[in-house]
Amino acid sequence: MENKRIVFLYTEIAGYILSCISELLRHGNYEVTLVRWPLNKEAPFDFKFPEGLKVEDRTQFNDDALMSRVDSIDPHFIFCSGWVDKGYLKVCKKYRDRIPVVVGIDNQWEGNWRQRMASLLSFRMIKPYFNAAWVPGEKQREFAGKLGFPSDKIYTGFYSADTAHFFNYYNRFKAQKEQEFPRRFIYVGRYLSFKGVNELWDAFAELQQENPSDWELWCLGTGDLWEKRKEHDKIKHFGFVQPGEIENFIRDTGVFILPSTFEPWGVVIHEFAASGFPIICTNKVGAASRFVQDGKNGFVVSPSDKNALKTAMKKMMQCSPDELNKMGEASHELANGLTPKVWVETLGSMLMC
User: Fold this and answer.
1) Segment 213-269, tens digit of pLDDT
2) Which one-letter DSSP state was computed for residue 103?
3) What is the dihedral of CA 266, 267, 268, 274, to 10 degrees?
4) How many separate helices (H) and strands (E) can be counted in the chain?
5) What pTM was computed for the model?
6) Residues 170 and 60 in one domain
7) Domain of residue 344, CATH code
8) Distance between CA atoms of 89 and 140, rounded to whole angstroms?
């Protein structure tokens, strides 16, 4: 059987995409090429690319050279991470009527003027380039529908955590946390205002002032607000941490928090759910719709609402260790519904269409 040749055209890659591609390559009948732009300076991940993956640097190709490179591959399937790169769009337009050419959409439908304009102009922005969409969840499915994709050409589950990796953490630390649950919140993300970090720091500091406890808040990340981070004896800032260094943080913390005011999906929610964490997040976090059930494995609050965030944190602090571990187990079960294996199955179904 001829190997299926897959091309991914990416702006900013992430480790979880590589875990899905790695699963794809393990099947043995795919040849995969990834074209990508340089790393985001705010998230300087040290990626380990899967064996067998051909990686190309977008900056080494002008548009004509990129087209020639893709032509030399003669792909059976193209995925493009958006419609910003004009060179990528030229490739997609050439192949759209020959093979599945799929666009990734992670924005939720909110009905703002930009999205309404995009839906009105989809005949020019979308249809000449793509014949299907691959989205993380239902809110993105709605947006893809507004852009003119028929329902049978919209596929969900595009973002999957490296679940095997995080399930391993869950299994390794489960007994330890049942014996002594870590009384520490953890935030992992960029230090930017839309991530809600200022509200998080203030909420935690106020809780400690109102009712001092041995709970701590550990924060991992960097960004524009790093120099303005809140100093507090029970708020610890660790800076940017490579994925390979996060093991001890998962072992030593207990409740994950993501208070974003804007978060199209947030794979980190899936990662910490897979690791067995109770979760606090806002209703602007797309992944909450799949991995957080309010009152069962965590709490979902309104964005930019410091008091609501305080209430949710206080509820967690008042839970018994047994209750917190049961919430973590529920998170783990929810995370198991989406894996890189499911991702590969979805890609395979698109190839057959």
Assistant:
1) 999 999 999 999 999 999 999 999 999 998 889 999 999 999 999 999 999 999 999
2) E
3) 140
4) 14, 13
5) 0.92
6) no
7) 3.40.50.2000
8) 21
